[in-house]
Every structure is written in structure tokens, then in C-alpha cells.
Amino acid sequence: MKNINLFLILPALFVISCDKEEFSTGQAESFIKYYGSNKPYTGVSVLTTDDGGCIILGNFENPGRSQDICLIRTDQYGNTIAPVLTYGGLFDDFAYAIKKNDNGYVIAGSTKESSQGDKDIYLIQIDEAGDTLWTSSFGSNFNLDDEAFDVLVLDNGDLVLTGYSEILDDNNIHSDLLIAKINAADSLLWYEVHGQAKNEFGNAIIEAGDYFIIGGSTNSRPEYNTYNGYMVQVTKEGTNPSPLFFGTEGDSEVTSIVDAGNNTYFAACNVQSPQKDESKVSIVKFNHDERDRITTLWTKDYGEQIFSKISFGRANNN
User: Fold this and answer.
1) Which of the two residues, 69 and 308, has the higher pLDDT score?
2) Half-sphere exposure of 185 toward its Cβ, with a 13 Å CA cutoff?
3) At 82, phi and psi to the nearest 5?
4) Contact 311, 255 (CB under 8 A)
5) CA 318 to chain centre
6) What's the rounded Cα separation, in Å, for the pair 177 and 165?
7) What mean pLDDT is reported for the chain?
8) CB 204 within 8 A of CB 216
9) N or C: the chain end with fewer CB closer than 10 Å?
10) Which residues have a Cβ under 8 Å from the Cβ of 187 and sit 6 or more positions away?
11) Maximum Cα–Cα distance across the chain
12) How do residues 131-186 score in pLDDT, each as one tens digit?
């Protein structure tokens, strides 16, 4: 289910290409904009700023060198207002999520120490101007990959990450769900790995009362090579995982979760047909009650095309 080039269908339809057509400030509120250059760019996440503009996080291929991370800032009409910022070292770096915090923005992804080395979890703290305040990397010590696909900023400034960690089991490598926490001073507090199947990934994380809820995918029936979307609930210490729900006949994964207020949440799911010839977007609204039970309120499906990734933000409760 995972590959390097994660394309997102973003709420404002920011599509990466080489077209740099500009629009006037009198344009309609709805628009399509294109960003990039002669290098392949991939958009992975977008945030709105207080002045109505956007911050677009992405990755780009640096020919002859490596994959690096980029950040594009725009005004409310999608026009770029500053040079594209880039982050990364000599070897591959990937970004998957960006969140606002008190110091600016934190970026989560992965980094490599060498061309043939394993991937480690990578965090970049930047200020409002995009300047790097600190970076942090950590992972297993067994030449296996670890990546963070989402980051949650807690009220006290601590960060909680989810993604995957590769495990060597009977000379076979598989991926387990990862959840880790670091404090605002950039110190690792704990690092938990959970696996009940051959491969599990965490794509999105939210805070729900005394628990974290993680959305992702699990390869519960490896003999069929089929992934099912699922959500798992863990304690605030990252322990006692309890799978919640979501399964389909074909490949599926929960890719985004949004707090809708009043203990209700939206989950966006990618669902592929068993024949892998078409896919759809499934939006699930669910409730998390005081007894920590999950109740599905409704599910709606959209589209009959092939999507690599779907993400969304809250507009209303409908």
C-alpha cells in the first residue's frame, strides 16, 4: 500500500507540475494552481495560514543526488510569495506531514544516513519564516526502515508520531504499526511498535479523550496479499492497542482523520476493488463515547477512479 510517491488529492486541488501561470487578485475564490520546475515534484500536505494563504509540503527529486523536502508558501489566491524552501541532507529525505505548533511548523517523514542505508524517522522544526530550528532522527538499530506518516501536536507542545517500523522475523521482513512520543525539547519519551498481522501501517493520528486513535492499513490475510483499512486505539502511553473497525473486499486504508467536535470524527479511506481496476473514496463519520466505544454514524462512497491517496479537512458535519 505504501510507496515513495504519495499523491494527495488536496482540498484546494494543488497539483504539482511545471506550469507557473499566475492569476490576478480579482480571480474567483475557486482556482487550480500548479507549482514546480524542471524537477519532479510531489505534493503531500497543505495547511492554511492566518492571512488566508497556504503552506504546501512536498518532495522533489534532485537529479543525480537524492530526494529532498520542499515547502511552498502562497497568498490567498495561490500565488507564490517566497522562494521554494528545501530541506534535507546528501541522501534521501521524505516528508509526509506538517503541523502547526507554537514555534512554527513541525515536519515529519524519514531520512537516510547513506545511499544504501535504512530510513530513520525524521523531524524538522521550522519557524514561521521556514528557517530550521532543529532536526531529529531516530529508529531501530537493525538496518531496517522506520518512517513517520503523521504527527500530532499536543497542548503541552509534545509530539506524537505514527507510521511503521520494519521487523525481522524468521529471516522475513515485515512492517509493524509505530507510535512514538517526543517532548518539546526534542527528547524521545517512548517508542512503541505493535503488530498483529504481517504488515501494518499508521497513516493518521488524533487525540480522543484519554486515548490516541490511529488510522492506517493492515495485511490481515497475507495469503491474499490484501490490505484492509483499520483504526486502532492506544493509551496515552502508546500501549494496549485495540483495533476498531474497517474492512473491505479489496485493498483499503484509512488515510486521514479529522475531529468534528462533540466526540465525533471523520475518517477518509481509500478503497480499491478486488480486481484492482478501480477505486473509490469512502468517508466514515464515527463517534467515540465516554466508555471508549466506537460507533459508526454513517459511511458514504465517492468516485470510480484510481486514487493513490486521499486527504481532507473539515468543512461541516455533513
Assistant:
1) 69
2) 2
3) -160, 160
4) yes
5) 24
6) 7
7) 81
8) yes
9) C
10) none
11) 63
12) 999 999 988 767 789 999 999 999 999 999 999 999 887 777 888 999 999 998 78
Question: Could you please report the per-residue DSSP string of the chain?
Answer: ---S----B-TT--EESS------TTS-S----EE--SS-EEEEEEEE-TTS-EEEEEEEEETTTEEEEEEEEE-TTS-B-SPPEEE--SS-EEEEEEEEETTEEEEEEEEESSTTS-EEEEEEEE-TT--EEEEEEE--SSS--EEEEEEEE-TTS-EEEEEEEEEEETTEEEEEEEEEEE-TTS-EEEEEEE-SSS-EEEEEEEEETTEEEEEEEEEEEGGGTEEEEEEEEEETTS-S-EE-----SS-EEEEEEEEEETTEEEEEEEEE-TTSS-EEEEEEEEEE-TT--EEEEEEEEEEEE--S-B----S---
30-61 pLDDT, tens digit per residue, is 778 888 777 788 889 999 998 889 999 999 98
Query: Are the beta carbons of 254 and 298 closer than 8 angstroms?
Result: no
Cα radius of gyration rounded to whole Å, the chain = 19
CA–CA dist 198, 220 (Å, integer): 7
* Nearest to 283, CA basis, from 215, 211, 205: 215
pLDDT digits (tens, 9 = 90+) for 270-317: 887 766 667 788 888 888 887 777 788 888 888 765 555 555 555 455
Q: Report how far Cα 40 is from the mean position of its chain's Cα atoms.
A: 20
Would you say the pTM of this structure is higher than 0.85?
A: no
Show the cell assigned to 300: 458514504
Distance CA 283, CA 195 (A): 25
Q: Tell me what pLDDT residue 11 has.
A: 36
Nine cell digits for residue 8: 494527495
Question: How far apart are the C-alpha atoms of 250 and 245, rounded to whole Å?
Answer: 15
